[in-house]
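Journal club prep, notes for RB
We'll compare a predicted complex against what the paper describes. Inputs for the adenosine monophosphate case:
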Amino acid sequence: MASGQRDGAARTYSQTFSSAQMQVFGDIQPCRAAIEEAKRQGKLVGLVPTMGALHAGHLSLIRAARRQCDRVAATIFVNPTQFGPNEDFQAYPRPMDADLEACRREQVDWVFTPSVECMYPADSKTSVHVRDLTSGLCGPFRPGHFDGVATVVAKLFNILPADAAFFGEKDYQQLQVIKRMAADLNFPIEIVACPTVREPDGLAMSSRNAYLSPKQREQAANLSRALFTAAEAVRRGETNVAKLQSMMRDLIQSAGPNQIDYIEIVHPQSLARLTRVEGPARICLAVRIGACRLIDNVPVEPTRLTG
Ligand code: AMP
């Protein structure tokens, strides 16, 4: 069977660089059984959920899981329930062969690549909603998105009973939603946050960056510049959120045509909107450049004067 073809059963890929073997599962039961068997043997299992089109950001999650766990399971599933009707579900990149090769190189033990029908049988009726954390930032711009995320991640936690799951700070609101969901639903899994991996010019890596034209790609670098400039202004003593927002808006708009969905400074856990930065906070933004909607965020903390 050709590599990348889904046959529903486990496929074993020979490792070139290791004596271990990576198994690829399209079905739930054999995947769950492999993880349960490893856990019976006392192995710590790390889980890295992804939608594929793997880049260095995803690989940093896999490496963190490898460092902290004995076995690593990755999932590659473009989850339809987290895309709105006018979003890019059909167009989302799906380079399955290259993704499996990347997982193999990173010595992933198991890859779960279910079909949409496997994850959402026609008679499924349940979804998970996390209140409050989903009402701001991306929430109003992507109705239903975080329900889709929380639902698929809850299902993956049940299907792949790992000890720890690794998520990127790049999707900061998603990370907080997943932490809350895992705590509220008593999943016995540790949620590990991993820092954002950036291109040399600061642009946060994203599978969607591939949609950018060279000109838009240049423009996109201004998002992280604006975030870093604002974080520096906070370090130097600026606490007024309206001023910081205006500074970032000017920087981003000076780079060329784009549509700013939001620039917000929020509490790092509750995601409540702040008007002054008086403690640790998170600056988050979402900007549309052409057909591409980019999100990014950085932590900020005012310098405390002592003495
Ligand atoms: P996705 O495939 O976009 O759903 O992302 C899968 C996981 O990779 C999520 O936990 C993301 O937050 C994480 N991720 C995506 N981009 C980056 C990045 N640039 N740095 C670190 N983690 C990332």
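Talking point for the session: Residues 50-51, 57-58, 60-61, 167-168, 170-171, 194, 196-197, 204-207 surround adenosine monophosphate (CB under 6 Å).
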